[in-house]
Each structure stands twice: as C-alpha cells, then as structure tokens.
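So, who can interpret the following?
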Amino acid sequence: MIWNNIEDSIDVTQVSKSIVNDLNLVSERFIIYLPLIFLIFGFIGFIGNIFTYLQAELRSNTCCIYSLCGSIIDIINLSLNLFPNYLAAKYNIYIPWYTSRITCKLNVFILVFLPHLSINFLVMAIIDRFACTCKLTSSIRRLNQLKMVPWMITIIIISSCLISSNAPILYDLMYGYWCISTQPKLNSILYITLSGIMQPVIMLIFVLLTYRNIHQSHRRVGRVTITQRKSLHNQFVVMIFAQVFVTAFLSLQWIIVYTYFSFTEDYTRSNEQWSILFFVFSLTNNCYYINNVKSFYLSILTSHIFRKTLIKGLIDILPRHLRLQYQVSQIQPSMATITRIRPRDISKR
C-alpha cells in the first residue's frame, strides 16, 4: 500500500514536470514570437489603411478619418507596448523604464492610454455611422460634417487621457526597480470597468441603435428604394458588427484572465498551477493586441468599397504599360461574351 502511494506521487510529480516543460517549450518556440508576428502584420495593415483611406474616394469620409487615426495609434501601440516584449524575451534588450518614478509612471500610462485610445477611435467611427443613419432633420447628423472631425478627435484624446490618468497615479517605483501598483485591487477594478466593460458596452449600444435606424429606414421608403439600398446597408452592418464582435471577443478573453489573476494572486498554488496561469496570462495578453492588427484585414473581408478603392489605388500606381495591359485583360472577357452570341440567336430574340 505504501509503495502504491509512493508510485502515485512519483507519477503525479512526473506529470507536473512534463506539463511545466511542455508549457515552457511552447512559450519559447511560439508565444515569444507573437509580438514580432503581430508587428509585421500590423505594419502591413497600417500601410494598407494609410494607402486606402487617403484615396480620393475615401479621404473626405469622416468615418474613414477616424479609422485612419485609429490605425496610426495601432502601429504606435504595437511598437511601444508589444514589440519590446519580444526584444526582452529573445535578446534581453530592455527599455529603461524603471530607472525613475517618472519613467515608471510614463510607461504605465502608455500601456493603458494607447489601447484605450485605439478602441475609442473605433467607438467614434461607429457613432459617426450611427449619425449617418439618423433622419436628415436630426442634429446628430452634424457629426458627419468635416469641420466637426478636429473637435471630435480632440475630445477623444482628452477623454482617453483622463480615463487613463488613474494608472500613473496608482503605480510607483518600489524597491528601486519594480514598477508596481500601490493599490492593486482598486487599480484592477478601474481597469476592468473602464477598459473591459465600458468600451464594449458603448460599441454594442451604438451598433444596435444603428441597426434600428436602418430597419426603420427600410420601413419608411418604397420597395424599389429598398432593393437599391439593401446591399449597401447590409455591407455596412456586417462591417460594423465584425469590428465590434472581434474587438469585444479579444477584450473579453483578456479581461477574464486579468480579472481572475488579479483577484486570486494571493492564493497558494503549485508550480504546475502557476505555470499554467502564467502561460494563459501571457497568451491572452498577446492575443489582446490583435485588436491593433485586425482593422485592415477585416475591412478587406467585409467591405466591398474598401476592396474596390484599394485595388483601384494599386492599379493607379502601376507603370502605364502595366495599367494598359490590365485594362485590356478586363475588356477581353466582355468582348468574348459578345462574340459568342450568333446572328441567329439575335434574330430569335
């Protein structure tokens, strides 16, 4: 009996060591490279967004302006907050944030401010599209005027600064080299509420209001107008819902793990449990940054106007002889279709 208990304990220990080793191996060979992968795809998406939104067809669209601003914040966030993690883990290169109280607080502020500002620009883009679907007599439609854009961008930046200001207040340099929260529970509650709950709720509210306006407009106009505008509205709804649902999902998976970690960090755990928790924490934290990568790729998948503008812009920058070849290749299928119609087929008609 004693030997059985000893064998069981040895098996459990071996399994625990195996799990820890497997998680460490996955972290070293996969998770450590996620920041670099996200930065590369994020930079490609940033170039694509800049190129597309600055085309003549979209540059004066207020929603596209907010999306463009969000894309700029996305690449800054990936560069300042995510990519240094790769440099630290792979090459032991660290940004000296923790040399003084000022740099410690600045680092924490940037960590909170940039992701919040990025999502706020998405919120503003949704509000702008909501204003587009309101009645022509509604005062909310003033938000679609170009002269309102600088004011709204200023309001977004100021509000994000105010909401993120609690982070540097609640963090300080401790023991000479640790930048930690002086009130961890209060800090966690504020972060979960302001970043994990408030923003997704606001986005969902305006998506539902926008959908309601579109549904009501379908009931007001005639059947012919409905069929002409249906595809545009459906495309718009799909694009908005895609942005909101992906953002909400990525935010939710991170906030759930962050909440669990914050309120159970004092619990006694085995080495295996700590390894699993740190692995999940690291994975979800990295996946949260997909919010700063997804915009361009979701726009391509869900918006015909975005794809059309992007392709047209790419064709315009081609050399003249290549543009002519492309135009000829587009004309030839149409000519081939015409030549297939025989004279007797035409006479029968």
In short: The beta strands are 171-174, 178-181.
